[in-house]
Amino acid sequence: MQELQAPFIDTDFLVIGSGIAGLTFALGVADAGRVVLVTKKEDSESNTNYAQGGIAAVFGLDDSYDLHIQDTLRAGAGLCNEQAVTMMVEQGPKLVERLIEIGVEFSKEKAIRGAGRLSLGREGGHSRSRIVHAGDLTGREIERALLAKIQSMSSITVLENHLAVDLIVDQSKPGRCFGAYVLDRLENEIKSVAARATLLAAGGTGRGYLHTTNPPIATGDGIAMAFRAGASVANMEFVQFHPTTLFGHHVDDRAFLISEAVRGEGAVLKTKDGETFMERYHESGGLAPRDTVARAIDSELKRRGDEFVLLDLSPIGRGRIRERFPLIYGTSLSFGIDVTREPIPVVPGAHYCCGGIRADLDGHTDIEGLYACGECACTGVHGANRLASNSLLEALVSADRASGIARTKAFERDTPSAVPVYPLRQRDEVEAVVVAHNREETRRLMWDYVGIVRTDELLDRAMRRISDLKEEVAEIYRRWPLSLESIELRSVATVAELVARCAIDRKESRGLHWNEDHLDLDDKRWKRDSVIEGEARLPVWLPS
Ligand code: FAD
Ligand code: SIN
């Protein structure tokens, strides 16, 4: 029999995450009820904050919805949900305009600055220039404006340093969600937050790999939490590696991204001795879809035994580089590289999770009362490979749609008057080094064994190690007092297992999943999502 207690916080909407998805949803429901938004560090810390290239949307005079849809479907290698793609593309421009109304200052065309025409960048896989951006600081500008708007809304309470640990769900099938248990990191206590509707917008999983463009928050907590609560996940094998991150220097423990937009402006990939190579891999050269470019670089590095390839920005021109890419210019310069004069050494890094919690574009998951939007969700939009700059767009459209539904549906149900006390751990001494070691080991094995190019043997090795790690993590989790580190380790290990399981199952090469032992596409067996049913483990809420 579980001990029950009144919820610590009672609200109408609980939002987990303060990236573009969480903030958009919170604004969408703010006039319908009380909103509590929890975020595990400072409010702006998110993948969104580091987005460089921009947000894809049809504004160009030579562009059309159909072209954007076709580009998205082509990149997705047969696995996109065409209906979801169409909705996303068609609703994109209106929502980008709404961002502008909220106060986001996107870059304008120089010739008619102030006249309102957006500057549109070009990225890999796009047949037209359609990337709306704010220089190369697009994400920071979006976060700034959305957070300013959020702060002006009295119905929204933002709780920083509040880490969601587990969802509060009952045992019905399919389950029902009534909020989440949240660790207040400053007070070091678990709070139960009861809500009529809960949104998971906890972002990506990049920190599960050794080299990643993602900031430390991206440990897949949302996916792991939903999976434990019984929600199914899909397409976890499709991990996107960005082709170009700065080699040899990290910024705050992140591989520093060199935006694909630089190739869109004319930058060229070369081997160390100055030879171009992308024309040997794809007719679109350096503007081929991202999976192709990342694999081409991986292949050149292996073939030549080099540690990096070069990205030559000189065709863009000195003035234009400084104007269009101030972040890349300034950051590289801080490492002694003047990108206007010398090529940048680059290598691929884990970047984006195309899989996630199975959801539709309205955010519905398998669990009633639980919505998922943004990078932690798998809505079918990206299929086997996300088209560049479609993720901010997907998060924006999906969170907006979900808020439109949740604002009514939430009031068709109540919040519980009592929830079980979260099972607290005993405070046995476990060295912090054990947590750190397991985390690093998981990240390294994912990089080495479940990386850009996979084989059956590497995947089997990965799975054996992950099984051992899983037991260790469970042991640590049972004994160790809850902390950011132990919770994140559990998430990283769960995500590793989900990625490896999906990768082992898919006996073909498609999109981002490339297995040297199964090089052919197998449409007959594999033109479908890889789905793993949720676990429905404790803690659960047992309605009396
Ligand atoms: P995020 O923005 O990552 O937000 C997740 C939030 O959840 C964060 O606030 C985090 O702190 C919080 N959180 C996580 N776990 C918990 C927990 N347990 N409890 C409480 N809070 C939690 N996409 C594009 O379309 N265009 C680009 O140009 C682009 N450039 C990129 C550049 C970089 C360097 C990176 C890393 C990604 C880029 N992407 C780009 C991808 C894009 O930024 C993300 O997919 C998108 O921002 C995800 O938004 P989100 O709201 O789903 O998640
Ligand atoms: C980039 O600027 O290259 C990143 C774009 C993206 O991830 O969509």
UniProtKB/TrEMBL annotation:
Pfam families: FAD_binding_2, Succ_DH_flav_C. Keywords: Coiled coil, FAD, Flavoprotein, Oxidoreductase, Pyridine nucleotide biosynthesis. One of its GO terms (cellular component) is cytoplasm. Its EC number is 1.4.3.16. GO terms for biological process: 'de novo' NAD+ biosynthetic process from L-aspartate. It is found in: Cytoplasm. Residues 12-392 form the FAD-dependent oxidoreductase 2 FAD-binding domain. Residues 439-532 form the Fumarate reductase/succinate dehydrogenase flavoprotein-like C-terminal domain. This is L-aspartate oxidase. The keyword RNA-binding does not apply. It catalyses: L-aspartate + O2 = iminosuccinate + H2O2. It is an enzyme of class 1 (oxidoreductase). Catalyzes the oxidation of L-aspartate to iminoaspartate. The active site is at R290 (proton acceptor). Belongs to the FAD-dependent oxidoreductase 2 family. NadB subfamily. Signal peptide: none annotated. The keyword Coiled coil applies. Pathway: Cofactor biosynthesis; NAD(+) biosynthesis; iminoaspartate from L-aspartate (oxidase route): step 1/1. Its cofactor is FAD.
